[in-house]
C-alpha cells in the first residue's frame, strides 16, 4: 500500500482566525476539497471559526469526514463545530494534542497563530527524538512560513542542530501538493537525531 492510500487521517494545524490574506482561506478550502475527494479524514482542533472552520466546512461540503478534538473549556470561545463526523471533547490542551496525534497518519501545517506554532513545534520535536516518523507537511501559502524556514536555517548555522533537521518537514506551496508530499516525505529512521542522543 502506498503512503497516500494508507493516509487515512490527516491532522491539520491552522489558525483560529482566517488571517489577512484571502489566499489562506482559498488554500484551506482547496485542501479540504482534495482531502474529501481522496478519502482522507480530517483531524483538527474542532472549532467552527478561522481557517480551522474553513477547512472542516470544505471537507464536509465535499462529503468527507471531519473529526474535531477540542477541550471542553474552549467549546464556547472557539465555537465548537456542531456538524462534524465526530467531535471529541477533552479535559485539557495536552489531552487534545495527544488525541490528535493518536488519530493522525500525517500532519499538515497551514498558516496560523501561536496555537498553531505550539502544535507544530511539538510534533516536529517529537519526530526529532523518534517518538514518531509521521510525515509533517508545511503548507507555505503566500510565503507565510518563510520566517519558519529562516529560523530553522539559523538554528543550523548557529550550531544548535544538524542540517538534517530540515528532513523533519516537507515544505510545499500549494494545497494540491500536500497529499503527494506525504508520499515522498523523507524517512528519518537513521538520520536526524538531537546532538546528545
Ligand atoms: P491559533 O493558531 O493561535 O489561532 O490557534 C490554533 C489552535 O491551536 C486553536 O484551536 C488553539 O486553541 C490551539 N492551541 C493553542 N495553544 C494550544 C496548546 N498549548 N495545546 C493545544 N492546542 C493549542
UniProtKB/TrEMBL annotation:
Keywords: Cytokinin biosynthesis, Glycosidase, Hydrolase. GO terms for cellular component: cytosol. Pfam families: Lysine_decarbox (PF03641). It comes from the Bacteria. It is an enzyme of class 3 (hydrolase). Its EC number is 3.2.2.n1. GO terms for biological process: cytokinin biosynthetic process. GO terms for molecular function: AMP nucleosidase activity. It catalyses: AMP + H2O = D-ribose 5-phosphate + adenine. SUPFAM superfamilies: MCP/YpsA-like. NCBIfam families: Rossman fold protein, TIGR00730 family. Belongs to the LOG family. This is Cytokinin riboside 5'-monophosphate phosphoribohydrolase. The lineage of its organism: Bacteria, Pseudomonadati, Pseudomonadota, Alphaproteobacteria, Rhodospirillales.
Amino acid at each position: 500500500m502506498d503512503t497516500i492510500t494508507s493516509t487515512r487521517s490527516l491532522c491539520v494545524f491552522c489558525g483560529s482566525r482566517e488571517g489577512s490574506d484571502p489566499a489562506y482561506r482559498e488554500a484551506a478550502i482547496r485542501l479540504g476539497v482534495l482531502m474529501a475527494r481522496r478519502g482522507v479524514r480530517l483531524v483538527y482542533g474542532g472549532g467552527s471559526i478561522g481557517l480551522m472552520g474553513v477547512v472542516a466546512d470544505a471537507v464536509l461540503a465535499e462529503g468527507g469526514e471531519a473529526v474535531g478534538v477540542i477541550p471542553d473549556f474552549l467549546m464556547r470561545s472557539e465555537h465548537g463545530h456542531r456538524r462534524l463526523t465526530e467531535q471529541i471533547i477533552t479535559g485539557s490542551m495536552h489531552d487534545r494534542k495527544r488525541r490528535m496525534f493518536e488519530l493522525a497518519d500525517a500532519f499538515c501545517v497551514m498558516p496560523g497563530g501561536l496555537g498553531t506554532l505550539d502544535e507544530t513545534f511539538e510534533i516536529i520535536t517529537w519526530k526529532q527524538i523518534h517518538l514518531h516518523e509521521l510525515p509533517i507537511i508545511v503548507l507555505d501559502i503566500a510565503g507565510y512560513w518563510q520566517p519558519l524556514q529562516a529560523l530553522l536555517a539559523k538554528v543550523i548555522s548557529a550550531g544548535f542542530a544538524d542540517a538534517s533537521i530540515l528532513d523533519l518537514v516537507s515544505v510545499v506551496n500549494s494545497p494540491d501538493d500536500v497529499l503527494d508530499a506525504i508520499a515522498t516525505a523523507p524517512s528519518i529512521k537513521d538520520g536526524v537525531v538531537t546532538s546528545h542522543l
